[in-house]
Amino acid sequence: MKPDLFEAPDYYNLDDLLTEEHKMIRDAARAWVKRDVSPIIEEAAQEAKFPKSIIPGLASIGAFGPYIPEEYGGAGLDQISYGLIMQEIERGDSGVRSTASVQSSLVMYPIWKYGSEEHRKKFLPKLASGEFMGSFGLTEPDHGSNPSGMITSFKDAGDGEHIILNGAKLWISNSPFCDVAVVWAKNEEGRIHGVIVERGMEGFTTPETHNKWSLRASATGELIFQDVKIPKSNILPGKSGLGAPLGCLDSARFGIAWGAIGAAMDCYDTALRYAKERIQFGKPIAAFQLQQKKLAEMITEITKAQLLAWRLGVLREEGKATSAQISMAKRNNVDMAIKIAREARQILGGMGITGEYSIMRHMMNLESVITYEGTHDIHLLITGLDITGENAFK
Ligand SMILES: Cc1cc2nc3c(=O)[nH]c(=O)nc-3n(C[C@H](O)[C@H](O)[C@H](O)COP(=O)(O)OP(=O)(O)OC[C@H]3O[C@@H](n4cnc5c(N)ncnc54)[C@H](O)[C@@H]3O)c2cc1C
């Protein structure tokens, strides 16, 4: 792979909207990605292996629980800092960002928000340091966009202390190596609860899903529960019902809205540099109107997405961002990124399909990002419901 020469586009001087602390956190994450991710990520993706060696580095830049309070081992940062960290990681690779998103928003967040003080103390510091890795089990083989239909369930073990969990979750990021899984399952009354399942519990297995063409540097798998006996105290007491996992998804989708900008910036920056250097018909291809149209539209869309993410960050920090606003940003920014990746790939001609450049990897990764955490279509329906009051899901 070519050396990482990334220079971040900032066409509207958006840095002026950031504090010195934001810039410091962003720049530290950027430098870490250049130093520790870019040199190894292409090979990891080609070999379809999550590079575990980067776990301590992810922890060191605050990627595990950026906004979780410091008393629990988190970085205690604000929402814009969280977004900027996700942006920088996904500039390197969406799979690496996925690992960080799951750990932070889908595992640490529910333990912090819905867990007991004992849960927080037991799990959060180890998740923040990367000593423990977590996964989040919501999707099932027959229930993806409609998780409320889930069949994974638990019943009372009858000994006063345990529950028995049965079912299966599919498409679970980090599952093959997770130490803990936050699993969403129905109780005997059909109400959804979060349950902390720990590796080593009998009947709990995590087979890996192979042959992915996307997010190859992120490990994906199943979570299978066959009569798993779990202490009742592992049930998250703070919130139940579908709103509980959806609250986690709000946080993760917010991070994705920022992360996708990183992937788009990397594609744009690569294509711009290539277009200036590549000579055809006696001049740089950047001099041809058709290539300029592509590049000019890319920077326009990136700038719009940056503004959307920044404003969403301010709203979220103020506690005012709605789930529908988060949906809009996730949908828009991932769609923007995937379109830019496709256009950027064309600017590189044949070179664009090789692992010498990051574009094709970003493009394939974004095919997952546009589907997980609510598909492109589902987020449109969320906006539709929000503005019309009419539910078009069913
Ligand atoms: C690499 C990867 C990692 C993932 N990681 C996780 C994870 O860590 N944890 C987890 O729980 N899940 C995870 N997921 C699962 C992901 O969230 C689901 O794939 C996603 O929610 C879509 O579900 P589905 O694949 O079953 O598609 P389906 O729900 O079957 O949807 C198929 C198509 O139908 C459309 N559709 C569905 N319902 C409607 C409707 N009402 N109206 C119009 N169109 C509709 C969808 O938009 C989509 O285009 C991951 C997925 C991938 C690919």
UniProtKB/TrEMBL annotation:
<dbReference type="InterPro" id="IPR009075">
    <property type="entry name" value="AcylCo_DH/oxidase_C"/>
</dbReference>
<dbReference type="Pfam" id="PF00441">
    <property type="entry name" value="Acyl-CoA_dh_1"/>
</dbReference>
<dbReference type="InterPro" id="IPR046373">
    <property type="entry name" value="Acyl-CoA_Oxase/DH_mid-dom_sf"/>
</dbReference>
<dbReference type="GO" id="GO:0050660">
    <property type="term" value="F:flavin adenine dinucleotide binding"/>
</dbReference>
<dbReference type="InterPro" id="IPR013786">
    <property type="entry name" value="AcylCoA_DH/ox_N"/>
</dbReference>
<dbReference type="InterPro" id="IPR006089">
    <property type="entry name" value="Acyl-CoA_DH_CS"/>
</dbReference>
<dbReference type="InterPro" id="IPR009100">
    <property type="entry name" value="AcylCoA_DH/oxidase_NM_dom_sf"/>
</dbReference>
<dbReference type="Pfam" id="PF02771">
    <property type="entry name" value="Acyl-CoA_dh_N"/>
</dbReference>
<comment type="pathway">
    <text>Amino-acid metabolism; lysine degradation.</text>
</comment>
<feature type="domain" description="Acyl-CoA dehydrogenase/oxidase N-terminal">
    <location>
        <begin position="19"/>
        <end position="131"/>
    </location>
</feature>
<dbReference type="Pfam" id="PF02770">
    <property type="entry name" value="Acyl-CoA_dh_M"/>
</dbReference>
<keyword id="KW-0560">Oxidoreductase</keyword>
<dbReference type="InterPro" id="IPR037069">
    <property type="entry name" value="AcylCoA_DH/ox_N_sf"/>
</dbReference>
<dbReference type="GO" id="GO:0033539">
    <property type="term" value="P:fatty acid beta-oxidation using acyl-CoA dehydrogenase"/>
</dbReference>
<feature type="domain" description="Acyl-CoA oxidase/dehydrogenase middle">
    <location>
        <begin position="135"/>
        <end position="228"/>
    </location>
</feature>
<dbReference type="InterPro" id="IPR052033">
    <property type="entry name" value="Glutaryl-CoA_DH_mitochondrial"/>
</dbReference>
<comment type="similarity">
    <text>Belongs to the acyl-CoA dehydrogenase family.</text>
</comment>
<dbReference type="InterPro" id="IPR036250">
    <property type="entry name" value="AcylCo_DH-like_C"/>
</dbReference>
<protein>
    <recommendedName>
        <fullName>glutaryl-CoA dehydrogenase (ETF)</fullName>
        <ecNumber>1.3.8.6</ecNumber>
    </recommendedName>
</protein>
<keyword id="KW-0285">Flavoprotein</keyword>
<feature type="domain" description="Acyl-CoA dehydrogenase/oxidase C-terminal">
    <location>
        <begin position="240"/>
        <end position="382"/>
    </location>
</feature>
<keyword id="KW-0274">FAD</keyword>
<dbReference type="GO" id="GO:0046949">
    <property type="term" value="P:fatty-acyl-CoA biosynthetic process"/>
</dbReference>
<comment type="pathway">
    <text>Amino-acid metabolism; tryptophan metabolism.</text>
</comment>
<dbReference type="GO" id="GO:0000062">
    <property type="term" value="F:fatty-acyl-CoA binding"/>
</dbReference>
<dbReference type="InterPro" id="IPR006091">
    <property type="entry name" value="Acyl-CoA_Oxase/DH_mid-dom"/>
</dbReference>
<keyword id="KW-0809">Transit peptide</keyword>
<dbReference type="GO" id="GO:0004361">
    <property type="term" value="F:glutaryl-CoA dehydrogenase activity"/>
</dbReference>
